[in-house]
Each structure stands twice: as C-alpha cells, then as structure tokens.
Amino acid sequence: MSTSDTPIVPEEAAQPVAESIAEPVADAAVEPAAEPVADAAVVEAAAVAKVPEMTPSECARQLKDRFPALFAGNVAKPLKLRIQADIKERAPGVFTKAVMSAFLRRHTGTTAYLIALTKAEHRFDLDGQPAGEITDEHRQVAQEELDRRRAVHQERRVKEAEAERANRDKARAEERAAQTQQREEQELQEQKRRNRAQLLRDFEKTTLTRANFCVLKGLPESDLDRVLEIARKEAAEAPAPQADRPHAPRGDRRDQRPAGPRRDGDRPAPGQGRPPRR
User: Is rRNA-binding found in the keyword set (predicted)?
Assistant: First the structure.
C-alpha cells in the first residue's frame, strides 16, 4: 500500500521525528571573530532586541514571501540540511533563532513533509534547486513515523465506529422500550375504560343495594359515584356503532345492462343474426 493511498492522522508528537530528519537547530556556520567576545555579545543582543518576536505562522508566511521556490506551493519539499544558516545569511536579522527553531520543528513534522521525504530524490535549497540527496536513514525514520500515524488513525476509526454502533444500538433499544411502555399504558387505560363501562352496565341492571354492589365489585362505596360519572362521560363520547349495511339482492345481469343501441362486439340477442342450430 502506498503512503498516499491511506489517510494519515494529524501530526502528533512530531518533534522527535522532526529533530531526527531535519537539520540541527544550532547554526554551525563558522563566523569570523573579528571583534572581541564582549563586543560580539553586545552586537548580538542588540540585533535580537531589534527583531520583533513573531509566531511560527507569521514566520511561515514571511518565508513563503521571501523564498517561494522552497516554501510556497501545495507540495512540500525536503529542506536542505542546515537550511537555517542559509536563511540567516539571506535574511539577516529577520528571524530569531527561537522562531526559526519552532517553525522548522513544526514544518518538518507535518505529514506532507514526511511523505515528501519518502518520495523525493533530493533535498532543495532556498531557490528550489536540488541540494543533496536524502539518506536511507532519514527515509526510514519518516516512513516509520507515517506508519505509526496510520496505525493510530486506523485504531481511532475503529473505536469511533464501535462507539457510533453502540450509540445507535442504545438509541434503538430506548426507542423500542418507549414504544413498549406507551403501548402497555394504552392497553392499561383501555382495560380500565372497559371495566368502568362494564361497571356502569352492571350498576344499571343490579337489584342489589349500593353497599352490597360495591362489596361485590370490590369498590369503595365512596368511589362509586366518581367512577360511574367517568363511565357515563366515556359512554357519551364514544362513537356510535355503525349498523351493517344490507346487501342488495343480486338481480339478473341482463337487467343491469344499459339500454341503447348494440355496440360492435356485443353478442346478438336470441332470434337475431345467425339462425339457431337444429
């Protein structure tokens, strides 16, 4: 499976990888010591004080503007080793060492940059020209990090799918439980209504005293009037039963035939057309 065919998770803990495949943070360019150490320290401090602090995002924007051949475009390019020294030489006093280090750690730790390391043949300088080959060690480190991110991504997708399935099953179970409870409640209310209707019919036909009737029905006498009132109200609100419609007698089909001239295709009446067979 190629690296570009499988989605990669966002960059996580990319700093160790970036440090292993990118240039060293320290600038190893040897500068001539033309002045005493004390004077050089003063000059360096003054230069740093003049450079405004910028974020890695602002650093990336300025690098794209100054060196578009390397940093602009949609495809990442492997950086030349010790590119920080070249930037410092071509843009003196623009980027502090801390800002450049933060930017390079983030830039060389992106998935796009790691993929570029595994596919490109050369590193590139600030002008977008080949500047050294990529070692097998750097390719291997980049590929191992890509594999790790792919595994993390796959594991996360599996967990998300399992969680989604569990939530879906839970929602369905809750919906079924709610429907069952609603159906049982409706059946219970319907049974109570039928019991009240039967109680009303029995009360209207009984010859027992009120007290004996309540004892027979297992109903407190104090609740009898209330229950009967509800039953009478429900009986009044109930729709009247529809009487069965009488079926019309089936007459002679010939009597149901519409009058009028015979249409083409109709069978001729007896005595017309061909003579009957003997």
Answer: no
